[in-house]
Write a structure and sequence with these properties.
Strand content: 35-45%
Distance between the termini: 43 Å
CATH topology of the largest domain: Tachylectin-2, Chain A
Helix content: 10-25%
Structural class: alpha+beta
Amino acid sequence: MTKLHFGIMVNGFVLKKWQIVIIENLISNGHKLDIIIQNSEKEIFKKSKYAKYLGKNSLYNLYLKFFHNPDMLSNVDFSQTLNQYDVIEVVAELKGKFSQYFATDKIEIIKAKNLDFILRFGFNIIKGEILNSAKYGVWSFHHGDEREFRGGPPGFWEIYYHKNINGIILQKLTEKLDGGMIIRKGMFSIVNHSYSTHLNELLRHGINLILFAVENLSHNGELKMTIAEIETSKIYKFPGNFEMFRFLTILIFNRIKFNLQDLFLHENWNIGIAQQKVDDFVQNEKLEEIHFIPESENSFFAADVFISETDEVVSLFYEDFDYKSFKGKISSRDFQKVNNSFTESETILEKPYHLAFPFLWVQNGKQYLVPEANHSNSLRRFKIDSQSKTILDENIIMKSDCIDSVVFKYNDLYWIFCTKKAYGTNDYLFAYYADDFFGDWSSYKNNPIVSDSRKARMAGNIFMANGKLYRPGQKNNVFYGEAIVFNEIIELTKDAYVEKEIFKLMPSQFLKFSKGIHTFSVSKNYIAIDAKNYKFVRSEFLRKIKLKIRK
């Protein structure tokens, strides 16, 4: 791992919290801040502090002042630590309305620092040789999908136009406006009932993207970039008063809808099985008749189902969740093929913490359970007696807050794909590999391999169908359990990962449980899924009321 040297461009020494978080994380990871480049240009025509509350954007500015309070945009005074760093003051030459060019002598001072990259937290549209003053250039964020939303404010117009996904790009700046080279890009869910919460989430994702990029660069010694896909789309600006009024009505409607659903519509997941080979499913993109287990009592549901199939018995392992304790355990039922019925539920594994997603893996003829147990901050394997379904032993695979982990073997390597609680359970897919299932696991060199709320989180085991390798992913960006996305894995090595979306499985075909789906698991002759509807659960209603009061 190489320690990198970087600089920052700022307009002053009061920065936003999200910028400070990036700087502090980079330094704590061993990288060195070598220079601060301060914009010393003075504002010639200073407007009255009240003027912005009287013009065409007055409603927007009033909203920002009195109702918009994202934590990541709070001010942090950075001046107390300035004596630790070299500071260079720059008055850039303005050409045209916005383009700023640095003087040659200032550029030479910056180049002499031999920086790896510069983060732009200040200035305007910078052009000229300053863009080449660090080995890997000047980096900047755009909190929007460059193909659709250019300009700003970040995350605003996505809510205004009822979008369900918000792009973010970390780019290396070039001379072309909005035409930088993309270092990292992510597509993330929109919190459409709170602009402050949504912007907080966008900024958090921006922090993640830059930390991932620097970690990859530090480990790999190369920066992989793609060309921005610029469309001839509208450049958005601050909203006028009429647009802001409409935006507020949208927020109010979305907030009322969110709270009503949160209080009164509680998820009621159930699991089912179809006697169908996965090759047939992929070819036809349709499931045969699903046989669901009997519905659970009011405060319980069953989800996250996996199949254990032998010549003698077909068993379903699943999350058995209780709203009263707000905790899941792992239970099992056998499927009886003669009359399409199920045995009674039996508890297989219960812990003081929540358990879910009981992935099953067979190694050397022995069966192992690898459930989600992120509250223990570890990924564990449990050896199971396949006859009695009792747990024989327990071991830690790795110390990590893994979510919905899946094990598979490909080209003589064992792989684990999972998301992580710390980075958002639905947003980033991480890969790990090992030569031996029982050995030490290494992180894939360009983690995360997917940064997209529409498909990152695992939805079941990775499988071969018709000679191709498929990864089912959860589509959770509009609501939890919106669909399952089937991605063909085109390339998977220690150095490269490429997948392509092929088709989606929607929950609408399951009639009674038509409101969501988020697990798809396969065995030799069977496919199991979970699907949901909604019900009212008194204990969950009271829990939500308490949470809202505490806020």
